Amino acid sequence: MHDEPIDPFNGDPADPAAGLDDPGDDAPLDPLTEVERQDVLEDLADLEIYQALLAPIGVRGLVIECEDCREPHYFDWDLLRGNLRHLLSSGRPRVHEPAYDPDPDHYVTWDYARGYADGVHDTLTESTGDDDPDPDD
């Protein structure tokens, strides 16, 4: 099983991207800084929580506003996980394009997912009484 989508044009002489420069071939790799690497690892951990909480209620993944093209990009859980793992291993984000005809009702933003997870955590904490630092008060 692959963690990333398979390139449908791999080895095809008619590959439409064949003429594009591949930055992985010539450019020196700038590895992620420790802070960047830690951020990606935290995103991966958060993604697991978000998927566990949101997938059962019909959320298929996250929507991210692309800084380059100013369009929303819709990522299923597995695709986003694969992209983050690729970033960890290569130090570069994957080339991307908007998903074909996604249903925006099935995707949420990182902020929404984070708020949802925080709300679930706060509700569970309140119901168990763990939020009171001094139970003798």
TrEMBL record:
Superkingdom of the organism of origin: Bacteria
Biased composition (Low complexity): 11-21
Region (Disordered): 1-33
Stated name of the protein: DUF5319 domain-containing protein
